[in-house]
Amino acid sequence: MAVKHDPLSNIEVHGPIPAHLARSVIEETLRNAILDGRLPCGIAIRQQALAVLFGVSRMPVREALRQLEAQGLLQVVQYKGAVVAPLIEDNSSHAYEIRLLLEAQALRQSVPLLSEDDFNIASGYIEALEAETDFSKIGTLNRLFHQTLYCKAPNKKLLGLIETGLVEEERFLRFNLEKMNLGKLCQDDHQALLRHAKAKDVEACIAQLELHLQRGIQAITHFLDSQKAKQP
């Protein structure tokens, strides 16, 4: 009889965790394990097993799982509990429509306040994206570039919602970018966004963002359709 693999066996915990840090440590550890694939889609995450693994009560575990659910990395499924969410839903176009609304508002708030240091950081991410060949890192660099343009927005709730969408995209790209046959990603859209931001032209930034997100949804939709066509 085959021994069922325990997905939590891929997670290492080093030493006892201070009580006041338990929730954040558990959240960050599980988040990294989901993003790098150690906890794959569809795997159920049991509270009691996590409490034993981290040597804590179930309270910080529950709090960490709620945070990960809010970030779209976990879903609560009847009879299974918390389950690692799919890489992307079939309604990805709806998610991108929401992202445009949120990120456009962040640009309105942030762009007028961005400094030369912020522009240099954003430029550095573009250079890194041009040079990067590790597909697992490209999604992360893409997220960091966009977050740099939004970083001065004073509405932290807005930034939190935006991060959820960017993390979802990062996770999808990490596992599917190579299979999407996009080759070396062109950074023209990012360069244009940065150029408009430097000019403090908010409306041009938003127009460029809309075009950029539309390209993204077209690529993802085409990929998902091609994957469905291969299914028997």
TrEMBL record:
It comes from the Bacteria. It holds the Pfam family FCD. This is DNA-binding transcriptional regulator, GntR family. Residues 20-87 form the HTH gntR-type domain. Keywords: DNA-binding, Transcription, Transcription regulation. GO terms for molecular function: DNA binding; DNA-binding transcription factor activity. Gene3D superfamilies: GntR ligand-binding domain-like, Winged helix-like DNA-binding domain superfamily/Winged helix DNA-binding domain. It comes from Pseudomonas deceptionensis. The keyword Transcription applies.
